[in-house]
TrEMBL record:
Stored CDD domains: nitrilase
InterPro entries: Aliph_Amidase/BUP, C-N_Hydrolase, C-N_Hydrolase_sf
Protein name, entry field: Carbon-nitrogen hydrolase family protein
Pfam family membership, one: CN_hydrolase
Location of the CN hydrolase domain: 3-248
Keywords tagged on the record: Hydrolase
Family matches, as SUPFAM superfamilies: Carbon-nitrogen hydrolase
Superkingdom, taxonomy of origin: Bacteria
Gene Ontology molecular function: any one: hydrolase activity
Biological classification of the source: Bacteria, Bacillati, Actinomycetota, Actinomycetes, Propionibacteriales
UniProt KW Cell membrane keyword: no
Length: 276
């Protein structure tokens, strides 16, 4: 059965009421487009950092049961919606993602891999886990997580058929290009999206922030990638909604018909940390 998937490129800042209003508009547009699954960027509620090397302004953090998250669940209704926020657990703050419908929370992820100055603000998560949803078994990653092939592979081995990667991924802070499509990080962002989908033979949904936060300029480039690594739909560096319909089970079965990467993985060769 075909599932209609939407990947969002949009800017979200510190203003929580404004962010909720923007989410409501995006969800309404996705509903009109027939989306069953909508993946919003990282840091939707409260925005991202202002600098990766020396962050000076931490985003507002929310508890996992905050009214803002309950409001997004209400907006979602029967749609499956993923979004990112800063999660407060006592004095600890995680860069987190949550997956909801109108029935409540379906899944949760805390970003494991923290680049550069993120570790000054956030505490890393310590696990990857897939979960069941009305659109199938799904796993979530947060931007820099996708740089590490083991992260996506862990979710695929846990049965995830769709991987949602929510990002606040900026252009290069050390070697900026005049135009975003030529930026080194723009090329890497696209490369990782296609590689992670193809090597795990799963459907990959990549969202991202756009615009500017402090000294960071975000790339956009939201997309849905098929299990063969082909981009099915995408946005530009500006805001937008990339939408496609795909029969996930049929396309994954087609990709794995001759070469089944997960079944053919030689797992004993990867027993890291063991002593011979």
């Amino acid at each position: 059965m075909a599932v209609t998937i939407g990947a969002v490129a949009a800017h979200f800042g510190r203003d929580l009421p404004r962010a909720l209003a923007k989410v409501e508009g995006i969800v309404a547009g996705a509903r009109e487009a027939g989306c069953d699954l909508l993946v919003l960027p990282d840091a939707v509620l409260g925005g991202y950092l202002d600098d990766l090397r020396e962050p000076t302004a931490a985003p507002p953090s929310l508890a996992a049961d905050a009214p803002e998250l309950r409001e997004v669940a209400r907006m979602a209704g029967p749609m499956v919606v993923c979004l990112g926020y800063a999660e407060a657990v006592g004095d600890v703050v995680h860069n987190a993602a949550v997956c909801v419908t109108g029935d409540g929370v379906l899944g949760h992820h805390r970003k494991v891999h923290l680049p550069a100055g993120e570790s000054r603000v956030y505490t890393p998560g310590d696990r990857f886990g897939a979960f069941d949803t009305p659109v199938g078994r799904l796993g979530m990653l947060i931007d820099y997580d996708k740089t590490f092939p083991e992260a996506a592979r862990s979710l695929a081995l846990d049965g995830a058929r769709v991987l949602a990667c929510l990002s606040a991924w900026p252009a290069s802070v050390t070697d900026r290009a005049d135009r975003l499509p030529q930026d080194r990080q723009a090329r890497l962002f696209d490369l990782y999206d296609c590689a992670r989908a193809a090597e795990n033979q799963v459907v990959w949904v990549s969202s991202n922030q756009t615009g500017v936060s402090g000294g960071l300029r975000f790339l956009g480039q939201a997309k849905v990638v098929g299990p063969g690594g082909d981009v099915l739909c995408r946005t530009s560096s500006k805001g937008g909604l990339a939408v496609t319909s795909i029969d996930v089970d049929v396309e994954i079965a087609r990709a794995r018909r001759t070469l089944h990467h997960l079944d053919e993985l030689s797992r004993p060769a990867y027993a890291w940390g063991t002593q011979s």
